[in-house]
Design goal:
Radius of gyration: 34 Å
Helix content: 40-55%
Number of domains: 2
Number of helices: 11
Number of strands: 5
Structural class: mainly alpha
Order of helices and strands: EHEEHEEHHHHHHHHH
């Protein structure tokens, strides 16, 4: 019989830097009075450590799941199965709780990858905090995983050296950054142009000379998920600078999930991507460009952009316009040809009738 108010999850007393994962286990059952006291104190409980040990706050987790914590919790008949909000896979595996906002619709591995890119909750955008809670077996048995702190600049970058050549080196670095920024702006303008005019990258054969290979299948992406996920994310982050209203990090994770289910050239991929980039045709174009990047097997986008194999033809929209005009012209020519044939037939019938009438006159 579950209690009306769940018992608190206590912090470990050891330092979080010694071990990122700490299992908290407690066997006794708290009294009802202590539960009420915890409930009245805004569901927080402070544990004081010894000297040199950090003070922390524990958030009481609402009982959104049953006691089989590492499996998707049971739902009533008629309700759909819960999905991870990041990978969109069926079922949440190793459910992970964010202690600040208490949201828990994430797999442990997914939220770790997410936190490396964005330290906020994918659902409410609240800060994740310095740790997450996972591997929950009961209200008193779980693991607190401390996230890696953000990297700080090294001292060498904070304090310039007294060497006179430092100014020259700094100026060269600044010029290099300006040149790199200009190159990136130029590439983005070119990418915007090809999407605006529907220019598709030309097909490149898969052989040892080009280094290209067939596009990865969903099974291949699953078998080497980390590598393909990195490449897909790299491409999506660059391309989605052209769509500033689209969350690049979310769409990158979403696209990695889709690539494990559908072929890149499939209609399903075009339809689902089109919801974010402006329609099915744009989604098909985006998927085509992504497939070309993955086929190249290049490690850097710069090498791919400047390579000899990336080429674009004429606009497909111009080609379709020319085809439409040609079809209209052919129809008009068919109509004219039909009109000529009709005129010729009428003329032939008229001449035949005149010949018959002339023959009758001669007979009389």
């Amino acid at each position: 019989m579950p209690l009306d108010t769940p018992p608190p999850l206590h912090h470990a007393t050891n330092s979080p830097t010694s071990n990122p994962s700490t299992r908290i286990t407690k066997t006794h059952t708290p009294s009802r009075a202590s539960l009420d006291e915890n409930h009245q104190s805004n569901h927080t409980h402070t544990v004081a450590g010894g000297k040199g040990k950090a003070r922390a706050q524990d958030a009481i987790l609402k009982p959104e799941w049953n006691h089989t914590y590492n499996e998707p919790f049971d739902r009533e008949e008629g309700e759909g199965e819960e999905w991870c909000l990041i990978c969109h896979s069926s079922g949440v595996w190793d459910r992970t709780v964010l202690p600040i906002c208490l949201h828990s619709q994430f797999c442990f591995g997914c939220i770790l990858r997410w936190s490396n890119m964005k330290p906020t909750c994918p659902l409410c955008l609240a800060k994740i905090g310095e740790f997450v809670i996972h591997d929950i077996r009961s209200d008193w048995d779980y693991i607190r995983y401390y996230l890696a702190p953000p990297r700080l600049p090294s001292c060498s970058t904070c304090t310039p050296p007294s060497d006179p050549s430092w100014a020259t080196t700094r100026q060269r670095a600044r010029q290099s950054r300006i040149a790199t920024h200009a190159d990136q702006e130029q590439i983005l303008q070119f990418r915007k142009y090809i999407y605006r005019h529907s220019l598709y990258a030309k097909h490149v054969g898969s052989n040892a000379h080009t280094g290209y290979k067939p596009p990865p299948s969903p099974l291949q992406i699953k078998s080497n998920l980390s590598e393909w996920s990195r490449k897909i994310t790299t491409f999506v982050r660059r391309e989605l600078q052209l769509w500033p209203n689209v969350d690049a990090e979310f769409l990158a994770q979403y696209l990695v999930s889709l690539a494990q289910l559908f072929e890149l050239a499939s209609e399903e991929m075009a339809n689902l991507l089109g919801e974010f980039v402006g329609g099915e045709e744009k989604g098909r174009h985006f998927a085509h460009e992504l497939a070309c990047w993955l086929r190249s097997r290049r490690e850097r986008l710069e090498d791919y952009d400047n390579g000899p194999w990336l080429q674009y033809g004429t606009s497909t929209s111009d080609g379709s316009t020319r085809r439409k005009r040609r079809r209209i012209q052919e129809k008009e020519e068919e109509k004219e040809q039909g009109s000529r044939e009709q005129v010729a037939q009428r003329r032939s019938r008229l001449l035949d009738r005149l010949e018959r009438e002339r023959a009758l006159l001669f007979c009389k």
